[in-house]
Amino acid sequence: MCLIAFALETHPRFRLVLAANRDEFYARPSAAAAFWSDEPQVLAGRDLAAGGTWLGVTAAGRLGAVTNYREPLQGQGPWLSRGCLVADYLAGSMTAAAYLDRVRRRSGEYQGFNLLVGDGDGFWYYSNRGSDPCRIPPGVHGLSNHLLDTPWPKVVSARERLERLLRSDTPDPEALFALLGDRTVFPDHLLPDTGVGLERERLLSSPFIAGSDYGTRSSSIILLDRAGVITFMERSFDPAHGVAGTVTHTLPSQRPPVADRT
Question: I need a labelling partner for 5 at 20 to 30 A (CA). Which of 57, 64, 107, 127 fits?
Fold first, then answer.
């Protein structure tokens, strides 16, 4: 993932409203969000290169998401897959806090990452480029390829747009997808300097990235209501930046999941 905007415990109907973009090289193979044959409780997209995922949920209310921390290359590794941080959490039974403590103790085995995990007891955040794991306070938050709530232009913009959408009784999924589909390139003086050069900073500055070899591969929306029902929507994009398909899954709390496709 390269952009996540989420509202935690701020809406009367939903504990969590999350909108996220996954940005990746088009050549890296992946599968759309579905229930995994080897871990049937996990609903997530899948990185077919390393076997992990960037975002996923379970019917028991577990949620995980990861973004890379943008920085100059830190040598050749070998590094463990950051996507497996999410997959291992979703497939396991540890509390969010305990899991992040375990990850912290092995954090040097990974390149830079931001990890969000949640369960019925709350939502937590940890970066191996930041401080210790912490519980995320209620509010509207944003995460890209730096630390949580770092005010990069697209993070600020996404948070502000999400705050406006929260004024409705049920946030409109198409409006959330429109937030994620914003291709605004921000002015140079607002851009961070992460060591990739100004031209690349411009490309990566927009919420939706439309590059020639790298860009937004999917947009996802997660709505967790106060009864524990999870709605997970994922919209995939082809290398020409057109919509390749949309998948919607509804997971009734502690009941067999139901999936609808459009």
Answer: 107
Condensed to tens digits (0 to 9), the pLDDT of residues 137-158 reads 999 999 999 999 999 999 999 9
Report the alpha-carbon distance of residue 114 to residue 92 in Å, rounded. Answer: 19
pTM above 0.85, yes or no: yes
- The 10s digit of each residue's pLDDT in 104-121 is 999 999 999 999 999 988
Pairing of strands 243-251, 230-237: antiparallel
Write the burial class of residue 80 (CB in 10 Å: 0-12 exposed, 13-18 middle, 19+ buried). Answer: middle
Q: Are 252 and 224 in contact (CB under 8 A)?
A: no
CB 143 within 8 A of CB 149: yes
- Which stretch of DSSP H or E encloses residue 58? strand 55-58
Task: State how far the alpha carbon of 201 is from the alpha carbons of 25, 68, 74, 186, in Å.
Answer: 16, 15, 19, 10
The residue with tokens 């509207």 is 140
* Segment (H or E) for 159: helix 153-165
